[in-house]
Amino acid sequence: MKATKLAEGVYWVGAIDWNLRDYHGYTLPGTTYNAYLVVGKKHTALIDNTYPGHEFQMMERIKDIIDPKKIDIIVANHVEKDHSGALPMLTKLLPGVPIYCTEAAVTGFGKYYDTKGWNFKTVKSLDKIDLGGKTLVFVEAPMLHWPDSMFTYLAEDKILFPNDAFGQHIAGCERFDDELGKEASFAHAQKFFANLIVPLAPKVLKKLDEVTKLGIPISMVAPSHGIIWRSYAGDIITAYVNWSHGVAKNKVTIVYDTMHHSTDMMAQMLAEGVMAEGVAVKVCMLKDGRFEGTHRSNVVTEILDSKAVLVGSPTLQDEVYPTVADFLSYLHGVRPGRLTAKKIGFAFGSHGGQGGAIKIVTEGLKKAGIETINDGYEVLYKPDAAELAKLYELGREVARKVKTM
């Protein structure tokens, strides 16, 4: 197993998890656990490590560069086990090795592992380590995305190691953005942001502003999952700023499920009305959520760059349809309403008795921070010609609002 060179004395020595398909509640085509080796004239540092069970890959890649026993500094940017799972093995191999991390991380590691005898060195923002021609600078990043999180910056090579920030879940032979291609790299980054980073958007903006004020140049961004940004480092930072502000397209995402195709008919007619106004639309039926395209994690990715979200459900036993309830719970956790720019939407659906699902959906949209522009639209049994015409006009109405936002 071979290491990958980022710069002179700097190497990717991580692991590829080809088989992971579900993580943090969303689908993924595998992932990588990125670890980085920085070889200075005086010291050698390992930044982050791997999920338990993947230590072998990392150790073999380290051996491609040096004897692992020559590592004399460990940097732990984050407690979560997909970044720290090799620490028990490393501390046995390297007894007494200093582990640089935040104060909050010490507490976290103590909950995950038996840390008796571990040599923690707590750091704060702008603390430094001189490796000999290689200077590591630490930047605390609490709640990006855990309280213990921090970034590490390699000053001489202008490389930022931001742990989960700017990452993507993808497994492949490509290590860099230009190898995977810009479009694919950004698509995976958008899904990662939409599912994991949106709840933290205000903190992202604050931290990026802090990093900008420090005046540190960044030529490469090396996250702990996915490809490394060397050709589009500036572009992904700009994308994070835009996504955090809620910058979106003239686009409507329609999400729904259906029992006897009545709600399906409603969704299709809403989509026709949106398209009639020249606005893009994405229609996602949750019944097919077992497939890649309409899994809830892909739906919220579509919502990230949409200005409007329409959610439909039939009423089942006086409640919202189960798949829609699941989606609304997930959407509330993501809470796109945290973004600076607002998103609008409304509920729709069909029923065979008293109805009521659209009231639950409307409350779910509000809970997620989406501004509802009406009380929803509900039909008895199956929409007739007049009701389909009304849905078409509702689609046109939301599209016209989108164009003015």
From TrEMBL:
<dbReference type="InterPro" id="IPR016440">
    <property type="entry name" value="Rubredoxin-O_OxRdtase"/>
</dbReference>
<dbReference type="InterPro" id="IPR036866">
    <property type="entry name" value="RibonucZ/Hydroxyglut_hydro"/>
</dbReference>
<dbReference type="Pfam" id="PF00258">
    <property type="entry name" value="Flavodoxin_1"/>
</dbReference>
<dbReference type="GO" id="GO:0046872">
    <property type="term" value="F:metal ion binding"/>
</dbReference>
<dbReference type="InterPro" id="IPR001279">
    <property type="entry name" value="Metallo-B-lactamas"/>
</dbReference>
<dbReference type="GO" id="GO:0016491">
    <property type="term" value="F:oxidoreductase activity"/>
</dbReference>
<dbReference type="Pfam" id="PF19583">
    <property type="entry name" value="ODP"/>
</dbReference>
<dbReference type="InterPro" id="IPR008254">
    <property type="entry name" value="Flavodoxin/NO_synth"/>
</dbReference>
<protein>
    <submittedName>
        <fullName>Beta-lactamase domain protein</fullName>
    </submittedName>
</protein>
<dbReference type="InterPro" id="IPR029039">
    <property type="entry name" value="Flavoprotein-like_sf"/>
</dbReference>
<dbReference type="GO" id="GO:0009055">
    <property type="term" value="F:electron transfer activity"/>
</dbReference>
<feature type="domain" description="Flavodoxin-like">
    <location>
        <begin position="252"/>
        <end position="399"/>
    </location>
</feature>
<dbReference type="InterPro" id="IPR045761">
    <property type="entry name" value="ODP_dom"/>
</dbReference>
<dbReference type="GO" id="GO:0010181">
    <property type="term" value="F:FMN binding"/>
</dbReference>
